[in-house]
Amino acid sequence: MLKCISGFRMLFVIGLCALAFTACKTRKTVTSYKYLITEDKKPAPPSTNNTTTNSASTTTATSRNSAVKEAESYLGTPYRYGGIGKNGIDCSGLTQKAYKATGVNLGRSALDQSKQGKLIQRKNLQAGDLVFFSAKNNGKIDHVGMVTAVKGDDVTFIHASSSKGVRHDKLNVGYWRNLFKHGRRVGN
């Protein structure tokens, strides 16, 4: 009986360790991707340039608007690290789910997503474009959102805030303006 309990404890501890090591904010991931799996699950050839991939290239405004509507269906959803559903979602889960609804596969982390699609300057952002941020001194991408509206220089984006859940914010407001790194246009 004692061995059985010890075995369960061991499995429990291993499970907790596995969860801890998958945490977004604290993990340091070193991943090498040679192939991007496309919709039909056939590997695409290795990319020689990070600006476009087979599943993340220029898309139509209709597809981007559909992704925005899907993301906005999560407004008010609480933040949950690693979450991908209405009961809790993180920033990259939100953008991944929104674009998956339009048939576009994005990476699971903000850093992975920041390497997909076409690089877009701030002045050329459109609804549906992804916006990337870094709160770290090393400039490493650690947050992603999606542009929902552009009116002149006023850019609104949706994201999963770790303290306030899924919400809209303004890109040109001090906090976000200072952390903004770049935008990307992804899609079919």
List the helices and strands and how they pair.
Layout lengths: L1 H20 L39 H12 L11 E2 L2 E2 L1 H10 L9 H4 L4 E3 L9 E4 L9 E9 L2 E8 L3 E6 L3 H6 E6 L3
Antiparallel strand pairs: 1-2, 3-8, 4-5, 4-8, 5-6, 6-7
Helix pairs in contact: 2-3
Description:
Strands 3-8-4-5-6-7 form a six-stranded antiparallel sheet. Strands 1-2 form a two-stranded antiparallel sheet. Helices cover 28% and strands 21% of the residues. It contains five helices and eight strands, in the order H-H-E-E-H-H-E-E-E-E-E-H-E. The chain is globular. The protein is of the alpha+beta class and 188 residues long. Strand 5 and strand 6 (154-161) form a beta hairpin. It has a single domain, classed as endopeptidase domain like (from Nostoc punctiforme) (endopeptidase fold (from Nostoc punctiforme), Alpha-Beta Complex), CATH 3.90.1720.10.
